[in-house]
Q: What sequence folds into this?
C-alpha cells in the first residue's frame, strides 16, 4: 500500500481548484495547500507532471493548465469515481453500488493501480484505522480483487460497510481494526470484499499539523 504521492496530490489540487475557481492556481497557492516548504519544491513537481504530459505550463503566474487528453499515453491520468465517505469506525450503512458524487483524476502508476477499470476512491471517516496511518478525511484508492491476509479492505459485513484489515487465520476470517478502541468484526452471515486498498492520499491544508 502506498501513501500520499506528491505528484498525485498536486494534480488533484489543480483539478479541484480549476473546477471551483474557473482558473488554475498559482505556485504559492499549490505550496500553501499541499504543505510544501518552498516554491521550488512545487516547481519540481510541476516539471515532473509536465514531462508526463499531465499539465501544460505557460509563462505567467497562473500558467498551469491540465492537458485535455488523458487517454492512451503511458502514465496518463484517469478519472476514478470518488465516493463521499466510507466508515472507518463501527460498521455503517454504505451502498458501494451507488453512483459516485465526484470524480478525481489519478495517475495509475503512482498509486499502485494495476487495473484502472476496477479501481475507485473513497473518503474515510472515523478513527479505527489510525494505527495503519489512515485518518478521517483521507482518500483511499481501492481495487476490486481478491484480498490476501493483512490487506486493508472495504467490506460489506452482514449488510453493513466498513474499512478494516482482512484476516484469515486457519480458516477463521475476521476484520481487524487498527485502533485498540475498536473490536474485531466477525461476520455472522455474509462477508463481501468490495475493494482492497492500494493507496492512501492525504492533503495537508495550510496551518494543519500532525497530531
A:
Amino acid at each position: 500500500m502506498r501513501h500520499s504521492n506528491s505528484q498525485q496530490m498536486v494534480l488533484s489540487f489543480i483539478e479541484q481548484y480549476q473546477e471551483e475557481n474557473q482558473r488554475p492556481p498559482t505556485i504559492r497557492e499549490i505550496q500553501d495547500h499541499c504543505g510544501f516548504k518552498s516554491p521550488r519544491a512545487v516547481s519540481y513537481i510541476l516539471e515532473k507532471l509536465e514531462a508526463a504530459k499531465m499539465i501544460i505550463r505557460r509563462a505567467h503566474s497562473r500558467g498551469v493548465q491540465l492537458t485535455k487528453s488523458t487517454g492512451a499515453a503511458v502514465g496518463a491520468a484517469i478519472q476514478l469515481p470518488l465516493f463521499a465517505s466510507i466508515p472507518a469506525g463501527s460498521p455503517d450503512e454504505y451502498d458501494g453500488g451507488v453512483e459516485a458524487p465526484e470524480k478525481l483524476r489519478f495517475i495509475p502508476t503512482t498509486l499502485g493501480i494495476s487495473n484502472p477499470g476496477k479501481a475507485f476512491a473513497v473518503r474515510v471517516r472515523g478513527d479505527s484505522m489510525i494505527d495503519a496511518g489512515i485518518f478521517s478525511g483521507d482518500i483511499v484508492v481501492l481495487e476490486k480483487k481478491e484480498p490476501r491476509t493483512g490487506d486493508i479492505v472495504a467490506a460489506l459485513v452482514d449488510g453493513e460497510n466498513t474499512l478494516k484489515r482482512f484476516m484469515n487465520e486457519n480458516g477463521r476470517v475476521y476484520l481487524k481494526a487498527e485502533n485498540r478502541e475498536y473490536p474485531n468484526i466477525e461476520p455472522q452471515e455474509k462477508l463481501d470484499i468490495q475493494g482492497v486498498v492500494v493507496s492512501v492520499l492525504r492533503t495537508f491544508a495550510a496551518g494543519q499539523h500532525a497530531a
The radius of gyration is 18 Å. Confidence is low (pLDDT under 50) at residues 69-75, 93-97, 205-211.
